[in-house]
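User: I've been going back and forth on whether these two constructs are worth ordering. Before I decide, could you fold them both?

Assistant: Sure. I'll take them in the order you sent them. The first construct and its structure tokens:
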Amino acid sequence: MDLVEALAHGVVVLDGGMSTALEAAGHDLSDDLWSARLLLTDPDAVRAAHLAYYRAGASVAITASYQASFSGFARRGISEDETARLLRSSVALARSAASDVDGQRWVAASVGPYGAVLADGSEYRGRYGLTRRELVEFHRPRVEVLRDAGPDVLAVETIPDVDEASAVLEVVRGSGVPMWLSYSVRGDRTCAGQPLEEAFGVVSGVDEVIAVGVNCCAPEDVAEAVAVARRVTGLPVVVYPNSGETWNARERSWTGDGGGFAVSAGQWADAGTRLVGGCCRTGPDAIAVLARELAARS
């Protein structure tokens, strides 16, 4: 069964934050490459994080390629050929971890926003001052390498504004590779301030899009986004919010009270969500709770 077929049969559980699992295992990610650095320095740690999420009940692992890009690795003196190898390895590591567990598992290749490469919190603002063509040129080589690595789906995630979403859709359109589009939002708008109706509407006519939704947002922002996504697109919805804590990009720290987002997952599923997981500050324990909550409702 492929992932599209699975979505027609019920809710599919995603993993949690890659960085959360890696930091819990003792890895220092205070570096511009963030979790992507471990693709180079400690790939076994990445595989172990995927395996922990699969064992916790996730059916989909999102690769560690969120912060990986040709320009970002080039600043570290890494060649284009080596960058391509690292991107391919992100898919292979998740696939390898899936082989250690029973049951159907899928791999989603993470395509993070341009702002993630800047490592200054720009992915929570958008509007980078780049033209659409520049955004297309940034995303195209990474998307093409990840696509050819054989994931089940491209996870175009944490996109802060419609302009960047449109640029990635231009790259993916016609490729035949399934993708989901997930925005970072505040309230009923993208992080760049555009209405969600406009944001979700850009997927019209792009056959590769199998789901739309939100991630890396407050849990309380999910319900409205699910309703708008369903109304505008009619597609399955994907949601993976943060734990409820807030990231301070300037201080590089989390504040607030996390936990408890899993209890809302059933309501999101009832409203049309078909892919549910966690993002920042949600580790394997949180995904285990989420998986149990959803299993109890099935």
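The second construct, handled the same way:
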Amino acid sequence: MSLMVCNVHFTQQPEKVVYVSNALMKVLNLSGKKSIHLRFGKVSTPATMKPIKKSGKHLYLTSGLRNTIRIPKSGNVHILNAQTDEVQIGPLIGVLSDAAVRTLTSPFGSRTEFIKSLLREGNKKGYFFAFAPRDINWQDDTVLGFFLNESGGWSRKTVPLPDVIYNRLPSRRAETGSTIATLRERFIKRKIPFFNWSFFNKSDVYELLKDDEEANQFVPESIMGPSSEKMKEMLDKHKFVYYKPTAGSLGNGIYRLTHHPKKGYFARYRAKGSNVLLRFSNFNSLMRMLQARHGRSLRNYVIQQGIRLIEIDHCPIDFRFHMHKNGNNEWVVVGIGAKKAGKGSVTTHIKNGGQLLTPEQALNKSFGLRANEVLERAKEISISLAESIEKNYPHLLGELGFDIGIDEDEQVWMFEANAKPGRSIFKHPSLRKEGRASLIHIIDHCMYLSKFRRGES
């Protein structure tokens, strides 16, 4: 297998001919051949090959070839020959997303700027584009993609189905239903690597790790769809618990429940933009309130052991660990943000009054000179947890977000894992470098999955 960068040019001849410079023919071991198969994305076509005398590595495609394989632009690109009779140009990488309202300037809603940044960085290594499910034409296996033009705006171009797909569908609602299920199965049938498969529910992660003793020591005791008897048992055992919807996000619908033997039961939650604290004289009154507010949907709740986290100014601190697969298919920690809960808030989410800090700011307050040692151990545990989840998960993963807590005894706890984590931590001025590193890791993992990588054998 040979992988290199060459300069692709376009010519106007209608026939299917590819002109190859002598230097390129030599490194691709094509000398003496009369024809090859030229591949771009998931389309491959036979082409007559003719050598040309030109210094450097150059490939000239006639309009007949270009119209068949639909290469969107000329210039320096990667070229790969994994087989002696096939030369592949690329890689062609698709970013899958969508928006309820699609405009010319913002086709992917609030994710548009992130996708632009990803494409801008990715185009240095391949052909990166974005698309929504509605942009696929399954009749001829093509996509009407959104490409960045030189001025930073969007241009629409039809290309073959890509070599790799990075899934950033924006919500659980957007990726549920038979249409998306069929779409994913079609990608698998065509052997197109597709990551990340879907959002996790909280129950998914606990189920994946339930038989993994190594990982389970870092997961608080959690029970899906608990009965009222089991909830009371958990409260008596742990004194406080978190009660949260399995498919929730951004802290919506979460309760912190506390039992003080002499004072009664307390429920802390957020409603209509404000923090609420209610006291109940007995457990049954607490349960009646929860059932009145949520009814049958309580069957989709999980109860989780409360952990006494480290605090600043009596406000709990937790951490978002943003994990990526790198170009060698290994898990690494790319960014860490510390989140300080707002006064009286049940969660550390920024929109609920939380404050974003660097991990050093958060840990130095609690552990002083030991802060770096505690952080390094948390990183090692996060990598181990990512490996455990991936080992037990049936689909491709390339990115994870962990909500991590550390207690005063330096014990590390993983509360949640997100398969398509948000990027709010990278808004902190001290984490902008990590934000760019996150983009590069996504791109490098796409390159790995496409096989357009150095060292491939």
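Notes on the second construct follow. The longest strand covers residues 315-325. The chain has four domains: 2-90, 92-195, 200-219+308-457, 221-306.
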